[in-house]
Design goal:
- The protein has two domains: 74 residues; 80 residues, Orthogonal Bundle (Arc Repressor Mutant, subunit A).
- It contains seven helices and three strands.
- The longest helix has 31 residues.
Length: 166
């Protein structure tokens, strides 16, 4: 993700530099020693038309750049921000039944609960609570710390804002 973002910035900067170089160099290159033989009253019609085109080249390049920016803005696919409630509901729906039970208990208790309280949840014993909490801790959803003879389990800082309304 970060690499593609850096490449996008690099591409944008390169594009802007290319446009600037074209605006500066193309008219100078086009005006190089244009010899003409077709003069009417001392003025060559072709040379006048060419000079007019040379002066308009920067306008065409700048206009193309502006049109490109407008087209990019209009057609670039923007994603709507996802609401926290939807993220929390999706996260819980993807968990196993017992994991979601524990997470609901954690949320209802304000994000902190002892491991012994987790083992008292219906259908979850001490061993099962320990295993489930270990899985949740490994995924970074919860964090545990020693609390007397048991552990204090809390929702990790990364997920705290998602699950708790503070």
């Amino acid at each position: 993700m970060a690499m593609s973002k850096n490449l996008a910035y690099l591409g944008g900067i390169s594009g802007i530099l290319l446009i600037i170089v074209l605006i500066v160099t193309v008219p100078a290159l086009a005006q190089q020693d244009i010899s003409s033989v077709c003069t009417i009253n001392g003025v060559c019609q072709h040379e006048q038309e060419l000079n007019m085109l040379i002066t308009l080249i920067p306008v065409f390049i700048g206009g193309g750049a502006i049109l490109g920016a407008v087209a990019y803005y209009l057609f670039y696919e923007r994603t709507a921000p996802v609401k926290k409630e939807a993220d929390a509901a999706l996260s819980v729906s993807l968990m196993e039944k017992d994991e979601s039970k524990i997470l609901h208990k954690l949320v209802s208790e304000g994000g902190r609960i002892t491991q012994s309280e987790v083992s008292r949840i219906e259908g979850i014993g001490k061993v099962k609570a320990h295993r489930i909490l270990a899985k949740l801790e490994k995924r970074g959803i919860v964090a545990s710390e020693k609390y007397g003879k048991t552990n204090m389990v809390k929702i990790s800082d990364k997920y705290r804002k998602l699950f708790l309304k503070e």
